[in-house]
């Protein structure tokens, strides 16, 4: 039976506008216990900012976290998948582009979900170490 991206994607999305400060996004990530936030403009996907992006592109560069915008720290050259795509395609995209998260967009580039490597581990290999860790309740 073919599995689709929609079967495993997270649909409870956290999004921000490009002008949001990296400090505000870091707080959102902390409060929601997430590692990435989608950057949208006019309802369309513009980028993705991960916790690593905040460290490498903002903090390490000495930027003021209250003045540095998410647009300055986010990844904009994204690969995406659609909700009706085969799950195998999402795995291939992650492997080929060395990414841990792939935004899921509709035909108009509106974000409808996100697939993380942890989602795939839970679904495809629940007994693996990554599957076990990913399925565990987050530390607070």
From TrEMBL:
SMART domains: CBS. Keywords: CBS domain. Gene3D superfamilies: CBS-domain. InterPro entries: CBS_dom (IPR000644), CBS_dom_sf (IPR046342), Diverse_CBS-Domain (IPR051257). PROSITE patterns: CBS (PS51371). Residues 9-65, 74-130 form the CBS domain. This is CBS domain-containing protein. It comes from Streptomyces sp. R11.
């Amino acid at each position: 039976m073919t599995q689709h991206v929609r079967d495993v994607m997270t649909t409870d999305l956290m999004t921000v506008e490009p002008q949001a400060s990296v400090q505000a996004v870091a707080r959102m990530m902390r409060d929601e216990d997430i590692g990435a936030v989608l950057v949208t403009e006019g309802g369309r996907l513009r980028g993705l900012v991960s916790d690593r992006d905040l460290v490498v592109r903002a903090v390490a560069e000495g930027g003021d976290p209250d003045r540095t915008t998410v647009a300055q720290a986010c990844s904009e050259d994204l690969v995406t998948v659609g909700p009706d795509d085969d799950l195998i395609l999402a795995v291939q995209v992650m492997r080929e582009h060395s990414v841990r998260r792939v935004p899921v967009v509709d035909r108009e580039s509106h974000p409808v979900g996100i697939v993380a490597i942890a989602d795939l581990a839970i679904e495809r290999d629940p007994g693996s170490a990554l599957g076990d860790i990913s399925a565990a309740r987050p530390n607070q």
